[in-house]
Structure formats: structure tokens, C-alpha cells
């Protein structure tokens, strides 16, 4: 490599470094991708940490500025990683609002006393099943079985049937997926640790196939590689909306089966916020008919605020016979994890 | 040469050491919060099992990288392999492919590849250049006279060549081993559970920082052992070269077809395959529409923050590398090893440790670009230190002695003799950090300014919503940009 080329390389680096220095010396971010946040909005902006994907929720969060009267900055990440970040930041967090993919991450912050109470009228919009006192669910998802009707005439009526030799090697799960782990936590809370362990052992002995995500399980069932999979309902509806029709079918499990757990994505206001009023308005917007319709139509989730119906084709939320469970208890994931590890499932 | 260390070296070297050790200090704080829980995690059988899985993966990947890296380096530098300049440039290019992208392209095309061997395949293809580059550099500077002597004594060529290559191969192998230990994205896509998976799971599922901290500390100890082993392997060989050797290339003759097939196979798997996959997504996904403003601002942010990260890393690596090459004794050894101890920690641990320190002691730069630049320096210091150290070792110390005898101060000799001679190595290390930083994801996600994006975080956003077609432009641009320094690194050694 000639000296000239080396110098050329060095100058490229210098130019880019200067660009970065300019970016940082003004103390601001590069222009935000979605246009949802003006970088110079500065300290007065309402800061949202969102564990939900930008592609999914940015159209909604873009409307928060009008709803709250403040500039809004959104920081996207993985729900649990953002929760860890807030725990690490403690009192000095820059977050005003935490929008989480699941109740567990909100429960963890609640347990550490980092969340402020949500106003009662807002709480009252949502069934007690789907909220705490310092966080509130805004959209719901049901655990379901997806099955291949080409191979399965009568789908199982309970997850407990899946340990039967009849299903050996034909069932798929995604044990590292957060929704699956929430389901196992529900199983533990409902049936006890011993029963949960028996089920996991039975499933493992029955050669249940391990996948990384719900979407991969759904694809495998549609491809005829797997007969039954444990997933969340909206993957199926979203894929059906995209493709027109797909070979697989869904079974919502009856009779309070743990495999029909309804979990929520929700929101909480940080105790340390300096914009409590705007944050509360943001919570109200997410529970408004406008935002709730968005969840129903776009993400195919269940709207949780009273008065808004689920999308066509979905069974109604109040007809679902999921298990009665305190979602705040789903925060006890540590024991679930230990159980999953002890049984060698993850 | 255990002269007193000049302050111009010592001060920045100690800064680098403090930065490198910060994550470890953070882990100790978090692990000590709940000693009982910490002990429980440590004694769990699963912890030992996962440690063995991680070590097994790292050992296998390292061995595979040594085979691929050394064989390619020898073919390119020491034989008359047809088209060896092209092969040389291609051999470094896999550095431009993010391992999570490579893993995804493989599993999308061959779903059955998942697990241990899939992880080995992807990590080997992505990291063998860490072995190839230093070995190719060392091979091109070997003194052929040594080989002639060995041949004349009837000992064959291989023995002496391999012996001379040991330090550079070991340095590359060390980087590969730590990369494999720290890797999360590719192994999780391959569904192979290792130590880092466990660290992520305890953050993600249990919201608990104590187990993650304990596991992180175990990784630090493992890394330290690996670093010590590498130090023993490379020994204290002084291999400064005086003058440029006249090289004679080995004729490949009848072996032409198989060696060409080997070089072609590696290039096809490591560079061709991901490129074709991304190209396919690009073509099938054009209807998705691309936001050019987003692409442009993400590109500018990527180049800016990675460039600044590379420069800062190089500035810290020079004093550490010079110390390691030119000074003996406890302090130099400590400074060099400290740079490595945190290197096997996954990005999220480094990121959280910087959150911990920044909110306490550097709040004004919290969630600003400078903090991310600092994170890149902590993450990628060892790669740059290795390059600097090797290039300083290759310049004869006697030149510095001459400068001193002519009245230069220690600092003056450093500035006017050592550094100019080590410049190619310093720039190579800078380029290596530059392209690695471009691909970095976990720390970038946590530490970037709110609302800002790099190409890697855009890629994460697009794939997170399942639209691989929409992710393709970001993956393609990232690989093309990272290929520029990658290409220069490859050309340098041929």
C-alpha cells in the first residue's frame, strides 16, 4: 500500500471525524429519521423511550406533538434493554414516558418505584385485568395455537395435550421469545411451578422444535414443516392481510387455558418527569379512539380502551377465555428463566 | 530496553487503561449489590455448561480461522497464484460484512444450518481476516534467508515459516477468539445458546442486572486467561527486519486448480453469498420505496461517529502499542493487557457501564455523539493496539538509539523516528476500527442521541418489523462503505 493511498485514507477519516465533531459540538442529534423529533427541541421536549418498533408506532407517536402541545423525541430500542437503561439512569433518566412491548418491563420499573401514578380517569378506560396503578395497557395480544389444517383435523384444545405422543416432533415453540416466556410465567402462576416444570419436561421429551421467533414458526407451519405452533394472534392476521390468504389456521384455546394468555403493550410515566401534564396527555392520546383504532387496523392487536372494537375477523376481546391472571405477576420472569434453564429448554 | 517511560506515552496510556477497565468496575459494583444472588448464578450448573459451550465455539472458530487465514495469506503472499492481488483484496473484504447480516442470509437460505456448526461457519467467514491480515503482513516481511538455511539443513520450509508466523497468527487468533466469545447477534440468529445469550436473557427476561454482571465478570476472567495464553505463545520474539528481503515465490504448478478452488470457495462463501442475498432483497424489495433523506442522514452519522471513534481509538492505541512493543516490566504489561480484558464483553454490557458512569460523572455528554465515540474506543481498542504494536516491533529499535545518541529526547525519538516508521500500522489499525465501528449495533442503540440513526440502527429497525426488503438498502450501503477501508487493508498486504 503506497504512502499516498494511506494519506488518502487518513484524510477521509479526518473529514468524517470533523463532520462528527460538528454534529456533537452543537450538542444535538442528526436529523431524526422519521421526522418525529426536531433535534433542536432540546430540554423542553417530551422524551419517549419506545420498546415498540419504529415502523409500527411512529405514525402514532408523530401525533403526540399535537396531542401534548410539546415537541416529542422518541428513543427506540428493545423494551427490556430500555428498561435496563432506565434502571441504570435512575433519577437522572431523560425519559418522560416509557412505551413498552410488554407488561413485564413496566412491572420491573414499577417495582423499583420509578413510575408515577396514572390519573384515575385514564385507568378507568381499561379493564383492571390489563393495567396496574402506575402503568396502563394500551393494546393486547392473545397467545394462540397456529396449526396446519392440511395435516391436523381437530386442533388441540389445551397446551397440555401437546405433550401427548401423538404430537411428537410436530410442534414448534420459541423459548427465547419474550411472549413465550410471559406465557410460561402465566403457566407457573396459574398451575404452580411443579406443573409448569412437568409441562416443559414433557414438551422437551416430545421433541418440540425450537424456533427463534413467532414469525418463523408461522412460516414453518405454512410451509408444512410443522403441524402446530405456539404464537401470538396478530402475526397470523398481519400475514393474512399481507398475502391475502395463508394455509394455516388459528385456534384460540378455550376454558381459561394458560395457552390463551392475553398480554399487553403499555405505557408508564416516569416519576422524575418535569412534564407530568404533557406526559398524562400522551397517555390519554394513546387510549383515545384515534390511537386505539390504529392498533386495531394496523397492528391487528386488541384495542384495550372501552368502546373501540377489534378488527374484523378477530374474536371479540371479551369473548376470549384466557386465564384470569394478574399481569403484574408476569414480572416474576426471573423464576421462569431459571425454570427454562433448569429444564434445558433455553 | 526498560528505559523510563516518557510522560507523553504514559499519560494517554493510563487514560486508555482507565477507559478499558471502566466496564469491569461497573460489573463489580453491580455484582456486589446482591452477593447471595451473585454466588447463586456462579454456582449454577448451567453457568459452567454455557461457559464450556462458549469456549468450544471460540476454540473451533479460532482453529478454523487459523486454517483459512494462514493458508490464504501464504497463497497470496508467497506463491505465484494467478490473480493473487485480486484474491488479496477479496480476502480482507469479509470484514465489511456484519456478522448478524451474514447469519441472517445463511439461515434464510438454509434454515437447517442453525446451531453450533452454523455459528462456526458464519463467525469463521466473518473473522478470518483478523488472522489473514497480520499473517500476510508478517509473511511479506519474513527473511527468506532463514528458509534457505532451514532447507540447507534438510528441515524443510514449513517449520521455520510457521515458527516465524507464530506471533502474528497468535495476535490474530486472540482477536478472533474474543470476537467469538462476545458475539451475540449471529449466534442468536443461529439459535445456539452461549454465554452472551445468557447475559442478554437475564437483562431481557428477568430485568436483573446482577446475574448479567456475574456472567460478565466470568467472561473477563476467561479473556484474561486467553490473553495470558496468547502472550506465552508469542513470547518476546524481536523480529525487527533490516532492509527489504528479496522474495521468491513458490510455484503452485499442478496444485493450481485446487488452490484456486480453495481461494474461490472462501471468497464465494464469505463475500459473494451475502452480497448476492442482499442484492436479491434489493431487487425484490424495490416497491417498498426508500426514504433517501433517512438513508443520507444515517450514512452521514455512521461515517462521522465511526470516523471519530477510529481516530480516538488510534490516538489511545499508539501509546499503548508503543509501550507494549518497546518497554518491558509490569506497567507496560498491565497497560497492554488491560486493553484486552473487556474485549470479550458483549456490547450491551459496555453500553450499560457507560450509561452508569455518564449519568453520574459526564451528564452533559450523556446520549450525545461523544459518548458513543468513547464507547467505540473502549470496544475496539485491542484491534488497533495489535496493529500498532506489530508495526513498532518491525521497526528496528537501533534507529531510536541512534536518534537518542544524536541528542533527541525520548519523546523526540518517539515523534521523529518511531511513529513515522509505525505509521502504516497505525493507519491500518485505524481503518480496521473505522469499519468495525460502522457495523456496531448494541452499544450504538443504547448510547446514540435520541432520535438519531446510524446505518446499523436503521437496519435493526427495518428487520425488527420483519421487512428484510426494506432493510436491504441499509445493509448494502453499510457493506459498500465498510468495504472501502477493508479493500485498502487487503491491498496493503499483497
Features:
heterodimer; A: 346 residues; alpha/beta; eleven-stranded mixed β-sheet; 13 helices; 11 strands; B: 494 residues; mainly alpha; MetI-like fold; 2 domains; 22 helices; iron (chain A); iron transport (chain A); Iron ABC transporter substrate-binding protein (chain A); Ferric-bd (chain A)
The Cα radius of gyration of chain A reads 23 Å
Apparent shape of chain B? globular
Mean pLDDT of chain A: 85
Largest interface: A-B, 67 and 72 residues
Say how many strands of chain A there are.
11
* Shape, principal axes of CA atoms of chain A: globular
**Total DSSP E strands of chain B:** 0
Number of helices of chain A: 13
Query: What distance separates the N and C termini of chain A?
Result: 48 Å
Strand fraction of chain A equals 15-25%
What is the chain-wise order of helices and strands of chain A?
HEHHEHEHEHEEHHEHEHEEHHEH
CATH topology of the largest domain in chain B: MetI-like fold
The main β sheet of chain A shows up as: 11 strands, mixed
- Which bin fits the share of residues in helices of chain B? over 70%
Question: Based on helices, strands and strand pairing, what is the structural class of chain B?
Answer: mainly alpha
Strand content of chain B: under 5%
Low-confidence stretches of chain A: 13-41
Helix content of chain A: 40-55%
